[in-house]
Amino acid sequence: MITKMPSSPAQGSNDYFLSSGDKIRFFFEKEVFTKEGDFIIPKERAVNKIGHALHALDPVFKEITHSLKIKDTAKALQINKPVVVQSMYIFKQPGIGGEVTPHQDATFLHTEPMQCITGFWFAVEDATEENGCLQFIPGSHRNEITRRLVRSLPTEYPKTKFLGQERDYLDEEFVKLPAIKGSLVIFDGRVVHKSNMNTSNRSRQAYVFHIMDSQDCMWSKDNWMQPSVALPFPAL
């Protein structure tokens, strides 16, 4: 049972986050804890996301991820040898669900070559402009990756760092994509996207996982997340 904030609040810089690739772990919104690490609000309303191995360790999400419909969809997209690299359940809590700044998923899930990652995003609830629907820059998947999150050297802290820099984007470059409950949004790992803070009184829950085409494609060895002995990337 989680009663206090686990480890450091800086997601991406601590062992709790870095070792979550083969586990199911909880990550929380900012400013929902006291200085002592106690919850300010009920913890079920403080969760930002759950990750990153739901697709392999939870029976419900495993069935969804590895369903025949998803396999047929991957085949239609000409993903030749798909493996699932990570999964998340995102809550986007009412009133506090944080902004997700513009980024490319390949910044965090880097492959060589770079066009091997595809995101599958399911709207578990209606995603509206008010509660922070996804926003994309059309055609941005043709852009280069300008920033990468990598593991630092063992002697360095924080334990991850960014190489390069995300360029500045204008709000008018983005197209908002409201999605009704049950919708599936599929996007290239290089496309620039974001979502605004949820200022409404309705949550915007979603399930997302990422697939890599492992045919003629390599997972970068300095990515923050690495396949483990306990959980190699499972074939779709």
Automatic annotation (TrEMBL):
Query: Which InterPro entries does this one have?
Result: Phytyl_CoA_dOase-like
A GO MF annotation of the entry reads: metal ion binding
Domain of life assignment: Eukaryota
For the keyword Metal-binding, the answer is yes
UniProt cross-references to Pfam families, sorted A to Z = PhyH (PF05721)
**This protein's UniProt keywords:** Iron, Metal-binding
What this protein needs as a cofactor is: Fe cation
What family is it from?
Belongs to the PhyH family. PHYHD1 subfamily.
Functional description taken from the UniProt entry: 2-oxoglutarate(2OG)-dependent dioxygenase that catalyzes the conversion of 2-oxoglutarate to succinate and CO(2) in an iron-dependent manner. However, does not couple 2OG turnover to the hydroxylation of acyl-coenzyme A derivatives, implying that it is not directly involved in phytanoyl coenzyme-A metabolism. Does not show detectable activity towards fatty acid CoA thioesters.
Q: What's the protein name?
A: Phytanoyl-CoA dioxygenase domain-containing protein 1
Q: Which organism is it from?
A: Eptatretus burgeri (Inshore hagfish)
Please name the taxonomic classification of the source: Eukaryota, Metazoa, Chordata, Craniata, Vertebrata
